[in-house]
């Protein structure tokens, strides 16, 4: 281990850059620095050296402080948090995960809670309130300042997962008749209270959104030009009930830094900023990936959820799959007469349905992804399915040849080997057609296509696969 | 179908907002408007009405024009593109997918190509050049202006997938001794040539990055303050060879709009902006999801890739899985003596290994995702594996009870039913341990954990599953 004092020196030089403290020290990555902050913070708190801990945290970014606090034992979290300056405390608090946020709220005295909650940005506060028990929320809401209470209550009124819930009402609005100089004055006076000043929204007297202008355009314009002259009138906006994933996709599509949100009467009520978009994408992707793995996602952190809840969520899909798989058992059961005669047939069942499942999983994976990111192919199901069927045929032939050789080598029966090979080709084609078609079918009937993913295709192919296998085997064995 | 003239009216009112043309018309979503632009553009081009097509595109966002052009037949793409004004043409071109970009390049006359390529932002140009044949690239590079050539060559010198390749050298740098007024003047003069003016980078005489200041801070500061007084000295930066996914994660972590990129000597060489981050996440997520579905991703669009290439990429994994599955066949083959006696055993093989595969797929999905997004659990493998083992046990017991009943009902043999139930519990535990442990193992030996996903776990569980099943069955059948 490298000596602590030297490293503390590196860190406390104040720059977050990975840099040489002096030429003998190795360059330390930002991640290593974060680990160091974490271990040193714990050490200093255990020594009771609060001044040292305070000094340690001064040059650290709020997101990193939050991470360090999350890793502390619960009893130390509130102590560490109290070392922060008021402004920093709010930023750090917004970065904490919701479990730690809740346990801190319980630790704090009334006034401390109010100081923090009152100054959080309304969208972060709405997210916190989402997680707290309803009783605590109504108590906290009651104690906020009137304006803050209105902002939060507004956000809480919209459904979870919509633009209304993730927007912030803290934006700068301008009127068309202001000139550039006046607009800049207004921005200066509002900059402290608003989430972004880089996009400014132009509204009429009834708060209808009529235009948009960037701070960049404003800074480069002549002071005496009016906003109406230089603003863009072609505004892309979303409405309060737009799904958050669609909001994110729209911002991504147009490379915006923020997106205005309007109500049914086209009045501006808030904005969604690009930093939230990244988190939304991550959340939605996790949900998609969980679904593709057959895990029901509850929107919360899998690893922080109670084990019984986890089991309950997972068992639902497993039961559906198990019921489907009883079909496989029934099919094999019905063929026991043939199996008794040619017991060798049974050894290839897992190989055939396993390979079929894998081919199907590949097809469903690429199709589900293209549906989820709205690729142009998503509009041409027949083309996609046909293409996958061809791919399945090519793959089936390649693998079939190998399997025939392996089957003949293992069992010495040409009839069984040929039956296995032909079945594999048929199963590959079937699996890739099912794997590509079923996500489209699911979308058409209004389900999430991600539900029709690897585990489901694999299981569906199991049933059909053994059926095909026995049909082919019976046909060949009765003729050779 | 709704009448075209009325809809054209709605669109050409110039606002991109979803709005009522008049009270009798239904609200039209932005997506429907895009569809309309597409169909009308094609119609107008087919009629040879170029003035109409030009007027149609004037109020449309560049990203939407690009989409409309992509959907046109190839012969019409160049015609539509030539309708655009020069400035707009560049933005639209940057939004086109690389296939269409390439085919347009081939259609254009020399001067047209130069006009576009010369004015594209260097990072978009580097991406285009990545896709073009080397011969075309060197010809185009030779014809760019010296400064542009240097910018692009600089970017092309870095490895694909690193910060160096995705950064833009178009940023505004300031010196510490400038005052706020002078800095704003400098921004005004540079705003046209730079990708963002919202973050300004402070460098010393040797171009070392010493601080950062936002336009927001600048606008709210007093005109006579110096940059050195108000800038932030704690700069988070990445280096040119940092992996693009890490760059994206860092920007996400700190909610930045842009991230400075420095070279080995800590000199500022470029910035990565937040809009690129979203695209990087999408690209990396697609790669992860493809891997999780057992599809090798080539970084290009699956649906635009030649079918034989697709088959070649998919067959690699299928062969690995097939070879693993021959193990299953061998295990069953070795147990044929018992199968001959109790043929009923074979009907439960697919159900057992299928369920085991599904349980394992669930575990590997949640673990791989937590490794990929760098959740804190990613640092505690033993805790995760133990937890998953418990989950596997709970799930195994729940499903086992159902399976025992089903097996007894189907076969009437209590011994077989109990063997199936006990095997299912053992297989569930094994599958969830394997599903959670193998991604960690893969990470430890330097592979992408996503490779150890559903298809692989399923197949690995197949082999071990039949082995356990026969061992349990033999034990029980010889004793009851």
TrEMBL record, chains A, B:
<comment type="similarity">
    <text>Belongs to the SLC41A transporter family.</text>
</comment>
<keyword id="KW-1133">Transmembrane helix</keyword>
<dbReference type="Pfam" id="PF03448">
    <property type="entry name" value="MgtE_N"/>
</dbReference>
<comment type="subunit">
    <text>Homodimer.</text>
</comment>
<dbReference type="InterPro" id="IPR038076">
    <property type="entry name" value="MgtE_N_sf"/>
</dbReference>
<keyword id="KW-0460">Magnesium</keyword>
<comment type="function">
    <text>Acts as a magnesium transporter.</text>
</comment>
<dbReference type="InterPro" id="IPR006669">
    <property type="entry name" value="MgtE_transporter"/>
</dbReference>
<feature type="transmembrane region" description="Helical">
    <location>
        <begin position="454"/>
        <end position="477"/>
    </location>
</feature>
<dbReference type="InterPro" id="IPR000644">
    <property type="entry name" value="CBS_dom"/>
</dbReference>
<dbReference type="Pfam" id="PF01769">
    <property type="entry name" value="MgtE"/>
</dbReference>
<dbReference type="InterPro" id="IPR046342">
    <property type="entry name" value="CBS_dom_sf"/>
</dbReference>
<feature type="transmembrane region" description="Helical">
    <location>
        <begin position="416"/>
        <end position="442"/>
    </location>
</feature>
<dbReference type="GO" id="GO:0015095">
    <property type="term" value="F:magnesium ion transmembrane transporter activity"/>
</dbReference>
<protein>
    <recommendedName>
        <fullName>Magnesium transporter MgtE</fullName>
    </recommendedName>
</protein>
<feature type="domain" description="CBS">
    <location>
        <begin position="231"/>
        <end position="287"/>
    </location>
</feature>
<feature type="domain" description="CBS">
    <location>
        <begin position="167"/>
        <end position="230"/>
    </location>
</feature>
<keyword id="KW-1003">Cell membrane</keyword>
<keyword id="KW-0813">Transport</keyword>
<keyword id="KW-0472">Membrane</keyword>
<keyword id="KW-0129">CBS domain</keyword>
<feature type="transmembrane region" description="Helical">
    <location>
        <begin position="389"/>
        <end position="409"/>
    </location>
</feature>
<dbReference type="Pfam" id="PF00571">
    <property type="entry name" value="CBS"/>
</dbReference>
<dbReference type="InterPro" id="IPR006667">
    <property type="entry name" value="SLC41_membr_dom"/>
</dbReference>
<dbReference type="GO" id="GO:0005886">
    <property type="term" value="C:plasma membrane"/>
</dbReference>
<dbReference type="GO" id="GO:0046872">
    <property type="term" value="F:metal ion binding"/>
</dbReference>
<keyword id="KW-0812">Transmembrane</keyword>
<keyword id="KW-0479">Metal-binding</keyword>
<dbReference type="InterPro" id="IPR036739">
    <property type="entry name" value="SLC41_membr_dom_sf"/>
</dbReference>
<dbReference type="InterPro" id="IPR006668">
    <property type="entry name" value="Mg_transptr_MgtE_intracell_dom"/>
</dbReference>
